[in-house]
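Q: What structure does this chain adopt?
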Amino acid sequence: MNAVPQQLAVVTGASTGIGLELARLCAEQKFDLIIAADEPLIANAARELSLMGANCTPVECDLASAEGVEKLLSAIAVAARPVDALFANAGRGLGKAFLDQDLNEALRVVHTNIDGTLRLIYDVANDMRSRGQGRILITGSIAGLMPGSFQAVYNGSEAFLDSFSVALSNELKDTGVTVTCLMPGATETDFFERADMMDTKVGADDHKMDPADVARIGFKAMMDGEGDVVTGLKNKIQSALAAVTPSAVLAEQHRRMAEPGTAKQ
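A:
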């Protein structure tokens, strides 16, 4: 009797943080894995996941570029297996005022968070739809619910992802393909250090959520076919208030969290 092949999951941004925790959950649930990140640490993650029993293929690629996305899609094609679960988790942040940022770095946020996500999902979701089954988890953020003073480009990109996720979920209803948007708040990862935000109130906050907890919430929501999920009670309250608070007030509140130097206040 032929053994039933394990399901295949693709996880982007899987070298550290929420992405690595999502990949660990996949390994625990006996998924085979293709994991991607734009840094050599992805090989270390693959070794760990392999020790957990997962058949894991690492792909070092920059999803901010079309070439990087094609490299990941080629690895999926080589596997010659359908993708059962796609975790579109790769993302990039950037702090400081927009006019003080390097424009190329700001554009890289857009290319990673939006362009790379769209290119990947377009290919994988089309295959899922043709088969009539599949699960997609898109990591958005509650940052997309508010104007992000001193994170203007990042919050704008997350607003796109939050909206896109819900729209795509609606378009794919009754196809057998589900789309879930994971919307965390501040999480204890290297996001803020990479975004050059350690001198901000939010960056220096010692009460961020554990990425393992965030991943568990998102993984369960995806497996349950939920449309979106906000992680943590504090974030749920913040997202509910954002829906009824004027945008100008939200922008000022965000300024107090994200303006350089606020860590000392």
